[in-house]
Each structure stands twice: as structure tokens, then as C-alpha cells.
Design a protein that fits this description.
Layout (H helix, E strand, L loop, with lengths): L1 E6 L2 E6 L10 H15 L6 E6 L10 H13 L14 E3 L2 E2 L5 E5 L2 E3 L1 H7 L3 E5 L3 E3 L2 H4 L7 H9 L1 H10 L3 E2 H7 L4 E3 L4 H13 L3 H14 L5 H17 L3 H17 L2
Parallel strand pairs: 2-3, 3-6, 6-8, 7-9, 8-11
Antiparallel strand pairs: 1-2, 4-5, 9-10
Helix pairs in contact: 5-6
């Protein structure tokens, strides 16, 4: 139910259950954790692109499978989910804890658990066929995949409440205007654009990319005066321990050329 493709330094992971609009089963979540963890341990993989097999990105959790999973959890010692029931250790909602950047290429509807999965990516690019909805209130379940944490970070608390309390769909252009996705592209160009962005990341210093992601994870939700001091201390530690002036000199010309070409 997952397909993995390799494009140079980029691994494309496709939710591949189109007959069920890529609804997530416990086995799929566990498999996704396995695939992401394997990619994270491969030095040749610099970026992961996560997308769905048309016509949807992900319709959320498979509710029939979810009910079975929760029954298994209730019967398990301690009543806690495990990887065998599709609930591996997670960092951002349904996304496993990895250091490799993840771009979400949202090709169609991303609904409830599917939206939570998308929110676990570093950033999102949307097809003009994409749409987004949180239907937890409509189906009578509570989010457990990061919805109430990540959604307000991206679009603000009032818009997040509006999405969650109404269950209404938001189209791709509105999602972009709200800051949920970074850009909207024609459907047929989604993977090409996502791969181009992924390759831009792959060209960067991999250690620096990993460190920057860790800084964002630790500091982005803060705004107190100490957070600025923590960032400065983090930077000084990096400059002392990891910065390579020779590498900067070697890449200076290409950086300047890249900047000129993008003006």
C-alpha cells in the first residue's frame, strides 16, 4: 500500500491505496514509519517527497481498521499503542521522527488524518486539485496526530478552529493564501515542481540542513526573549564546532551565480 521510487538523492513515497482514497490503515502507518526510517538511515537519500496516488492525497484513517486497532490497544498490556498496531514512535503527528527533510506533494483531498499526515511534512506544495478538511467533529473522534498543534501554527488559531469546528473543505488557493501550503501548481506539474524543490535542498550541506531542521523544531513555536538567545548560542556552537570556511570559499561562486539567476 506504499510505493517507493528513487530519483537521485530524492526518495518519493506514494500512498498507494487509491481504491480507498489512500485511507491509512494501521499497517500503512507502521510501513510508512519503516520506509521513512530506512530512508533516514541512507546517506544517499537527502530528501523525501510524500504524495498520494490519484485521485486523493489521503482520506484520513480507515475507520474500520481504526476501530479494530483501538480494540487491540485496549486489550494490550498497559493499553498503549505499539508499532504492531500501527502507532510507532512519532515526532510530528503521524510522521515518524526522522532528520531527513520531507516535502508533502498534495495531489488531491487531504482529510482529517490525511491532513495531519501532511502537517508532519516540512512544507507542502499543492496541486490545483488539492483540498483540505478536518472532519474530526463530524465523525465524533478527537485528533491524536498533531492537528491542534500544527494547524494553528501554520494558519492561525481562528482559521484552525474554523476548519475543525465546521469540518468544511478549503481549496488549494485558499490554503495557500492562509499559509497552509507554500504554493499551488497545475496538477500535472506537481511532482516535477516538488522534485525541483527537493533537489534544491539536496544541493545544500546535509549537516547544515539537519541542524536547521532541529533549530526550527526546537525554537519556531517560541517567541520569548530566551529563544533569541538560545538561537544565538546554537549558532555560536555550530560556528565553533562545525563551520568550515574552506567549504564556504569553494561554494561562494555557485551561491552568487544561483542568486543572480533567481532574481
Amino acid at each position: 500500500m506504499l510505493t517507493v521510487e528513487r530519483h537521485g538523492a530524492v526518495e518519493v513515497v506514494i500512498l498507494d491505496r487509491p481504491q480507498a482514497r489512500n485511507a491509512l490503515t494501521g499497517a500503512m502507518i507502521a510501513r510508512l514509519a519503516e520506509v521513512m526510517t530506512t530512508a533516514d538511515g541512507d546517506p544517499e537519500v537527502r530528501v523525501v517527497v510524500l504524495t498520494g496516488r490519484d485521485p486523493a492525497f489521503c482520506a484520513g484513517l480507515d475507520l474500520t481498521d481504526l476501530a479494530r486497532t483501538y480494540n487491540e490497544v485496549a486489550d494490550a498490556p498497559g493499553g498503549e499503542p505499539s508499532a504492531s498496531t500501527g502507532a510507532p514512535l512519532i515526532q510530528r503527528g503521524l510522521m515518524p521522527a526522522v532528520s531527513t527533510p520531507i516535502i508533502g506533494a498534495v495531489n488531491g483531498p487531504a482529510v482529517t488524518g490525511g491532513l495531519e499526515l501532511a502537517l508532519g511534512c516540512d512544507f507542502l506544495v499543492a496541486s490545483d486539485r488539492a483540498s483540505f478538511a478536518d472532519t474530526h467533529a463530524r465523525v465524533g473522534v478527537m485528533p491524536a496526530g498533531g492537528m491542534t498543534l500544527r494547524l494553528p501554527q501554520l494558519i492561525g488559531i481562528d482559521r484552525a478552529r474554523r476548519m475543525s469546528l465546521t469540518g468544511n473543505f478549503v481549496d488549494a488557493d485558499t490554503a495557500c493564501a492562509w499559509g497552509l501550503v507554500t504554493e499551488v501548481v497545475p496538477h500535472d506539474e506537481l511532482l516535477t515542481r516538488s522534485l525541483a524543490l527537493a533537489n534544491s535542498i539536496a544541493e545544500c550541506n546535509p549537516a547544515a540542513v539537519t541542524e536547521l531542521r532541529a533549530m526550527y523544531e526546537s525554537l519556531a513555536h517560541r517567541g520569548d526573549p530566551d529563544s533569541y538567545r538560545d538561537e544565538a548560542r546554537w549558532s555560536r556552537r555550530w560556528m565553533k564546532e562545525r563551520f568550515d570556511p574552506a567549504a564556504l570559499q569553494a561554494t561562494r561562486a555557485s551561491i552568487i551565480e544561483r542568486g543572480s539567476s533567481q532574481q
